[in-house]
Amino acid sequence: MSGSPLIGARAEHPLYGELRQVTPHAAVLLADNPSPMTLDGTNTWLLKAPDASSYVVVDPGPLDPVHLKRIASFGPVSEILLTHGHPDHSDGARSFAELVGAPVRALDPTFTFGSEGLVDGDVITSAGLELRVLGTPGHTSDSLCFVIPGEAVLTGDTVLGRGTTIVAHPDGKLGDYFESLRLLAELPADTAVLPGHGPELADAGEAARAYLAHRTQRLDQVRRAVSALGGSPTPRQVVEVVYADVDRVLWPAAEWSVRAQLEYLRTEG
Question: Which of 91, 127, 161, 180 could form a disulfide with 87 if both were Cys (CB 3.0 to 4.6 A apart)?
């Protein structure tokens, strides 16, 4: 969820539909689906070694035929990977797979098509690359990150390029999210963040540590709000106090995170 200026700065994105090379092995195509939840839109990532003949595509995005055909126009696709199953990342995956004749791989078998799924610790060898799979639950239970060793990590919605993300309760769990952020904080220095929304960031460890600090601060605010509101407030009442500085259009999403925070306080303190 965006709404916090703590992390990232608004970048000048290319026009929708233009492929932009970001790292030696990763280029991004921005889907034209902007919203308060998707920021400028969903980032579809195209990965390949310079001498490879095909791409790995990460998060084809929404079911937008124009966007999917544009992805396909850049060359053959060997595999399609999903960071998680939210519709703005996955709705176009099956149609895109049928368009390019490539399998879809994900943690949640609901979204897998034409190949085996993915789990933490897998290594994907494709398009001249070796991608390491990190299980990073928290935003959702099926969230994955993909590491290009020595270069970058594709974070989906676990870390955004601007603002902060939600913990999508009840599927997402705050305790899991803390652990996932700690895992990302241990990545080597200068590992770039290639997020599902917003601009790329220079250092995954720095971004994850900033997210941890922000989440800890929010949790303390929720704890104080619960006490001030009599000990048993509704999630909406907590949102109105803790997220008073956030655009109200984002309050329904903030309520998901508050529910996750309240559950965390009940179960883990």
Answer: 91
Could you tell me which residues are beta bridge partners of residue 80? 57, 104
Local structure of residue 39 (DSSP, 8 states): B
Collect all residues with Cβ–Cβ distance below 8 Å to 64 and sequence separation of at least 6.
31, 32, 33, 92
Q: What gap in Å lies between CA 92 and CA 95, rounded to an integer?
A: 6
Residue pLDDT, tens place only, 87-122: 999 999 999 999 999 999 999 999 999 999 999 999
Strands of 152-156's sheet in order across: 123-126, 129-135, 144-148, 152-156, 192-195
Total-model pTM: 0.92
Per DSSP, 111 falls in state G
Q: Which two tokens stand for residue 52?
A: 């490879």
Task: Write down the residue that tokens 């305790």 correspond to.
Answer: 175
